[in-house]
Amino acid sequence: MVLGKAVLGATTTGGLAWWLGEPAPSWGSAAALLAIGGTGYGLSLRFYLLAQRAFGAARTGSVFAFAPFIGAALAVALGERGFSVWMVLGSTLMLLGVLVHLAESHAHEHTHEALEHDHAHMHDDGHHDHVHEHMPVGAHSHPHRHCAVTHHHAHAPDLHHSHRH
Question: Where does the chain cross the membrane (predicted)?
Fold first, then answer.
């Protein structure tokens, strides 16, 4: 899906540039643009997906929604003159919201129903205690089964903690 979006975006942008008669960039500029796009978009998307897996969609959304304020702060540091008290107020409120969202945690006894699924996981998280013939080091993915378990620990909403309270 991501590759398809990238191809569609690059084809559309290139087609528009050709249609409007824009000059082709030098090889160095094209390589730099590719590197910036690959890291700026590609790594951002990778980090976003990892964050969703680690601490849920809502927390991830609040953290990534703060990114424009970081860009605005960088623009001000580089000389942007559109700085205002409203920008400071908005940034402060957004930062406080993100901090409250990230600091939220609770612990209680909860039950996980038996579940069979496939996702990236590690064996040091208290939920993935199945064994392998050759135990992998680090994150890996394969279909696996969780037996029903009731336990108590601090957690945030994630793939294994979507229970009701």
Answer: 27-49, 61-79, 85-103
Tokens representing residue 148 in the block: 């029903």
Closest CA to 99 of 134, 67, 62: 62
Exposure string (b/e) for 3-16, b if CB count within 10 Å is 16 or more? eeeeeeeeeeeeee
Contact in structure between 109 and 152 (CB atoms under 8 Å): yes
Both tokens of residue 113? 């129903």
Give dist(CA 42, CA 65) in Å, integer. Answer: 17
The residue type of 29 is S
**What is the spatial distance between Cα 162 and Cα 133, in angstroms, rounded to a whole number?**
30
Using H for helix, E for strand and C for coil, what is the string for the chain? CHHHHHHHHHHHHHHHHHHCCCCCCCHHHHHHHHHHHHHHHHHHHHHHHHHHHHHCHHHHHHHHHCHHHHHHHHHHHCCCCCCCHHHHHHHHHHHHHHHHHHHCCEEEEEEECCEEEEEEECCCCCCCCCCCCCCCCCCEEEEEEECCEEEEEEECCCCCCCCCC
| Cα(136)–Cα(129) distance, integer angstroms | 12
Q: For 19-74, how does the pLDDT look when each residue is reduced to its tens digit (9 = 90+)?
A: 999 999 999 999 998 898 888 888 888 888 888 877 777 778 878 887 888 888 88
